Amino acid sequence: MTKIIPLFRKANMAKDKRRTLLLLAISAAALAALILPAVSPSSEAPGQTHYITASSDEGTAISPSGLVSAQYGSDKTFYFSANEGYYISAVLVDGNTLSFDQIYAGSFTFTDVRIDHTIEVKSTTGYRNDITLIIEIKEGKGRADYSINGGPLSTYTAVVHYIPEHAYEMIIAVPDIGYEFDKWLTPDVCTTSEISFYDVNSPLYLELYFKVVDKGYGPLLWIIIAALILAVIGTIAWYILRKKQRGQD
Questions:
Q1: Sheet harboring 96-97: ordered strands across?
Q2: Whole-angstrom Cα distance, residue 105 to residue 8?
Q3: Distance CA 126, CA 196 (A)
Q4: Cα(115)–Cα(248) distance, rounded to whole angstroms?
Q5: CA distance readout (Å), 126 to 59, 82, 102, 150, 178
Q6: How far is CA 204 from CA 40, 131, 136, 182, 207, in A?
């Protein structure tokens, strides 16, 4: 019996040693899995260069263009515009279409660049049909005359379509007889009858207000009315007093 017990002890010690070595190996593997990605080269490592492919068709221009480099984590802005006789119909960023508001801005910025990107500008011949001029007379009576890009004045009668991009628009309020100009709402309040808009690249909606001409008769009219009332009251009082005097006689 004295010889068997040490053998069991040696077997248990060997088994414990193997377990310890196995646990150490597992721990080392887990630690390596955490450390190696942080120290090994990565496709998204700071300092790496990425590329943005910028392209446009014959009716548009984009700057910068071609294969444009961008450092990891940096921002890169691209500016685009339409050539004469064209308008931008779409801007695709990584295959996704920008909204019209983003297109109207005339630029797009890739922020915190971490992968390669693409930006593509497309055009259509003619003029955009979404740049319009709408004028609504909210109060009073009168009209509005407008001019596009320094052209002759035209009287506004209905929605004006097909206004060129980046146009210069000038509008004048003309009151009818008995009225005078009050204000524009653009939506800001403007108290000059002639207003101008430069580099127009989106629809314009204007509200126009006229008011009745004040001829300055207000105070005089109230004086006349007050005098008439006093005259009536005085006449009535005189009549009552005269009647009492006759009764006493």
A1: 66-71, 49-56, 117-125, 86-93, 96-97
A2: 83
A3: 24
A4: 114
A5: 10, 11, 21, 20, 43
A6: 56, 8, 11, 20, 10
Peptide bond into 152 cis (omega under 30): no
Q: Record the tokens describing residue 13, joined without a space.
A: 């010690």
pTM value? 0.46
Single-letter amino acid code for the residue at 140: G
Q: How many residues are there in the chain?
A: 249
For every one of its 249 residues, what pLDDT tens digit does the chain have, with 9 covering 90 and above? 445 555 555 555 666 667 776 667 777 776 666 655 544 444 456 679 999 999 999 999 999 999 999 999 999 999 999 888 888 889 999 999 998 778 888 999 999 999 999 999 999 887 777 789 999 999 999 999 999 999 999 999 999 987 887 889 999 999 999 999 999 999 899 999 999 999 887 889 999 999 999 766 667 777 888 888 988 998 888 888 887 777 666
What single-letter amino acid sits at 49?
T
Domain map of the chain by residue range? Answer: 49-125, 133-212
Q: CB neighbours (10 Å) of residue 16? A: 10
Q: What is the DSSP letter of 99?
A: P
